[in-house]
Amino acid sequence: MSATAPAPHLGQGSFDISGTAPIPLTRLVGVEIRKLVDTRAGRWLLMIQAGLILLGSVIFAIVVGRNEGSIGLFDFTTVAGAVTQLLLPVMAILAVTTEWSQRTNMATFTLEPRRGRVVAAKAAAAVIVGLAALVVAVAIGAVMNGLAGVLGADIDWDLRGEMLAAFALLQVMSLLIGFAFGTLLLNTPAAIVVYIAFYTIIPGILGAAGALMSWFEDIRPWIDYNTAILPLSDFGQPDNEMGFGAVEWPEFTTSVALWFVLPLVLGVLRMLRAEVK
Amino acid sequence: MITVQGLTKTYGAFTAVDDVSFVARAGHVTGFLGPNGAGKTTTMRILAGLTRQDAGVATVGGHRLQDIPNPGRHVGILLDASAQHAGRTGREVLTLAAKTMGLPDSRVDEMLELVSLTDTEAKRRIRNYSLGMRQRLGIAHALMGDPQVLILDEPANGLDPAGIRWMRGLLRGYAERGGAVLLSSHLLHEVEQIADEMLVIGRGKIVAAGTKAELLASAGTFVRALDTGSFASALQAKGLAVTPSGEGLVVDAEPQAIGELALAVQAVLLELRAADASGLEDLFLQLTADTQREAAAAFPPGSPYHQGAQA
Asked: Between 20 and 30 A from B195 (CA), which of A127, B170, B235, B244?
């Protein structure tokens, strides 16, 4: 109690705000990155992610190595991708929904009432942490590829730039779709369930509907995100069939608009208007 | 410093804030007093830009909060001390605020010292904090940016008597240095101790405003006579409103008028003074009577919990 309350500047009915600089977006992004890792929940999510990738890769390396099979670095990024495609979106969802469930948005939005900037900073923070997680994932893959070689596998280090770019794009897209669901639902369990349904159940439903109704089969490519991204997710095929060159960009665009842009726009509108209690 | 004009907010058929206007001036602690659900929090949330009003204007320092760049440097806000992530430490919560506002980390230590949270306490997670500790943390959060205006919703809630005394000193000192404070409470004695100007709100409307002395003047005069019963009749014969209060009466008149009447009717007065703290309590209950949730006699006469039973 030895310190005193800060002395406010004397003023009558109003104060001068012309000398106050707005909060730079970079600072907001920095704060949002810190929020992603300053709770046990946030740290555990990243550690579990790394642990699962490590576990899956070790098993993979041992099995292939012992059987003297052939394996490449890209196979390990595929293992990592199976984990990150599920957990990075969960991280992005939590970045948004935790503020509403823990009601920290009261503090967040009174320190930066321009909520759109907060949403943008959150998206940027989630992408940055997501990319860092991918770097770790590829590093784990490199170590495990080496291990497989030591164990007797015929290994391939050829991880072309295009493969890496496609891998990163897919993962970041998944993360952003999770983020969009988070802004739309503002509720952690609901957003996670919807994302998992999108990831696991929706492709099957779309496929079944297409098989049963021929007219639906015609529009399915335009709305089926998982089909649209397929050329980016498997580089084990001859080059001309896979990779960026094989993506049907018009269909890719419409399905991304449906599953990412639409929920994001609705979600951001909701967040901008929502009453914070 | 805080100007609210014609502020209205409805939720469906329910009007939470009904044409509320007031000013909270620099250099003063303005108490915002009213029963639960009277509209205090909604008004403060509108000031904080968290709720949108249907009509009216709410400005801080002449600006809407949304128009103030880096508003934490101008307006300190504490709306709910429990609205913090349970898994963060107190120090981390303050660090996030300091970083958002662009302040050095040393500011966090200054604020922790100001609200008397020890280093050990600051390293604990907020789920382990008492309400009083959360309030202290919230006040540190609000003062972090060296603001000119403080908006505090029920800040004394959960503080022990020593804590309330500490906060009174803190806020008085802050106001004396030119800051404006708006603080709400549903407890009269809290506001009475801390605030020098009061706004009484009930069912979304401001029902009284002024300094404690002004409000008390309108509360009337307390008088006790040797024969209170017959003196009451004499007062009523003069057309004055008389309310029994303890062993005496509260009369809606100036002490001088009552003294002159006592002389005229040769009544012996034992007490004659402005209706005080209890008078303010009565005034508060009366001003908000039709807005209270519970009728005064929730327990039937004869029950040990009946209001009259304790006397």
From this structure: B244
Q: Does B77 touch chain A (CB under 8 A)?
A: yes
Q: Do A113 and B65 touch (CB under 8 A)?
A: yes
Which stretches within B144-254 are classed as H helix? Answer: 161-176, 188-194, 212-217, 228-237
Interface test with A, best of B52, B64, B65, B70 (most A CBs within 10 A): B70
How many Cβ pairs closer than 8 A exist between chain A and B?
Answer: 153
Asked whether the beta carbons of B270 and B263 are under 8 A apart, the reply is no
CB contacts, 8 Å: B1 with chain A: 11, 13-15
At residue B193, the pLDDT reads 82
Interface predicted TM-score of the whole assembly (ipTM), two decimals: 0.88
Instruction: Read off the tokens for B74.
Output: 């101008």
pLDDT of residue B297: 45
| Contacting B residues, span 86-145, partner chain A, CB-CB under 8 Å | 86-88, 92-93, 95-97, 99-102, 110, 113-114, 116, 141, 143
Q: What are phi and psi of B115, to 5 degrees?
A: -100, 10
Q: How many CA within 13 A on the CB side of residue A6?
A: 23
Q: Which of A97, A98, A253, A82 is nearest to A174 (CA)?
A: A82
CA B49 to chain A, closest CA, distance in angstroms equals 7
Nearest to B117 by CA among B92, B97, B99, B96: B92
Mean pLDDT of chain A, nearest integer: 89
Supply the pTM of this predicted model.
0.85
Task: Provide the pLDDT for residue B254.
Answer: 83
Query: For residue B187, what pLDDT is reported?
Result: 84
CA distance readout (Å), A230 to A225, A242, B268: 9, 8, 100
Interface contact A8-B178, CB threshold 8 A: yes
Chain B residue with minimal CA distance to A32? B96
**Distance between CA A91 and CA B88 in Å, rounded?**
17
CA distances from A257 to A180, A226, A228, B162, B284 (A): 11, 13, 12, 59, 58
